[in-house]
Each structure stands twice: as C-alpha cells, then as structure tokens.
Amino acid sequence: MIQIGINENVYIHDAVLDDKGNICITFEQLGEPGKEKPTSTFANIAADEVIETEYGMTIKLFPPLPPKPDNGRSVEKNVQLLQSDINKTKGIILHLLGGFMTTEQLKGKINPFESLPIDESNFDEQIQKKEILDGVHRNLGRAFVELIKPYLDHKDNPFRLLLVRQSPEKHFATLRGKYIKENPFWEPMTVPKEASKLAFTAYETTAGLTNGIPIAKPANAAGDAHVAAAPALNVGNVFQ
Fold it and tell me: H helices then E strands: how many in the chain?
C-alpha cells in the first residue's frame, strides 16, 4: 500500500484536472498478479479527500488561496507568499516530468499565465485575485496532464516515491514542494537502494512529517478524560 514514507515499485496511473480545478495525480503500485483493485480510479479521483487503497493513492494539488482582506501583511508579502505557492506546484510537476523528458524538451511547454490578463505592469494587483490564481493553476494542470499522458501506466519502469505528511496536524500524505532539487521525492527503481537519494529531511523529521498516524485530541472543549480521533479531512477543510 502506498503511504507516507518511501514506497517502491510505483508508477503514475493517471493525471487529470478535475471540475474544481484541482490537479489529481494517481500513483499506483505493482501488485499481486490477478488481484482485483478494490477501488476504481474514477471513484478515487471523485472523492472529496485523498483516497488510499491497497494499490494506489491520488494526490490533489489545490489552487492557491487569495489573501484575505486586511490580513495585516503588505502587498509585497502577499505576493511573495502566492509566488511561493505557485512555484511549489510548478516545481512538483516539473520534477515528475523530469523523469521522462529532458530540460530542453520541457522548455517553453509550461506557461502559467497563458491567456490570462496579467503581465509585469499589473502583476502585483492581478496575482492576488482568485480568478487569476485559479487560471494559473489550471494552466499548470493542463500542461502537466498533456505532457505526462504518454508516460502513464509505464509499469515496466517503476520508481520509488517518498511521501510526507501534510502537516503535524493533518495526517494525509502529500508531495514535498520545496528544495526538491536537493531533496527529490522520486527516483527510478534502477537506482541501487544503497545509492538512493530519497530520505526525510531534518526539518520533516523534526516537524513530525514522517508518519500518517492521526492525532487524537480531547472530545470537547471541556477536556474529557477520553480522547477522540481528529475529524476526517476533506477538500473543504484540508487547507483551512
């Protein structure tokens, strides 16, 4: 089962842009011959949360959220944070595509601002708007889906995949999105295990991002003696 940690014999089964503009990447793992998959790919992607099955997992990359009015941050800081969010998604898809295409082949194939009313003269204002952020994310998603299509279901070339916990509070798996060049999250299975570059970073280890154990918390504000599991996360609350 694909889970937080280093997973072996993984391949990309599907990649789609759903009707909410989320980039959905389905990873699957080579399983036992003749054994049926317990969940269809359609049901997996259609769900409102990350679905884990015996064979695979769909990771969703969500559009950046526009800054809230009067959040106390400067325009410069808001723009900087949004740029970081966009670059995180772009970095993830480039890292995945880099296993199948050269840098030269990818050159000019991904344009986040295609057909959007944004340029250098109005960038700071436009990039804070929801419709622009959604458009940028869709452009990244469309490009990724199109470029990765020829390489889906490449079961003869499986890879190792490292997944991290979303946050100390949120136990679902996700892809790391920063410093990927130095800390890749996937590599071909042809790389000998002793030469593998896949590992949790010191930050991920210290922050508790190395396991998928849900955090228990008091059942109510009064603090009962017993504890209850944290509520299930879904698209509506996972990034609140």
Answer: 6, 8
Looking at the fold, whether 145 and 162 belong to one and the same domain comes out as: no
The answer on 143 and 101 residing in a single domain is: yes
Q: Dihedral (C-alpha) 133, 137, 143, 147: value to the nearest 10 degrees?
A: 160
Q: What is the token pair recorded at 90? A: 């772009």
In a domain, 140, yes or no: yes
33-76 per-position pLDDT tens digit: 444 454 555 666 666 656 555 568 999 999 999 999 888 999 99
pLDDT interval class at 114 (50, 70, 90): very high
What residues contact residue 139 under an 8 Å CB cut-off, 6+ apart?
110, 111, 112, 113, 114, 115, 116
pTM of the model: 0.80
Contact 11, 153 (CB under 8 A): yes
* Angle, helix 130-148 to helix 75-97, in steps of 10 degrees: 10
Residue numbers of the domain that contains 189:
5-62+151-206
Q: Establish if 117 belongs to a structural domain.
A: yes
The label of the residue with tokens 């100390």 reads 168
Residues 33/155, Cβ–Cβ less than 8 Å: no
**Residue 26, domain member (yes or no):** yes
Q: How far apart are CA 181 and CA 178, in angstroms?
A: 8
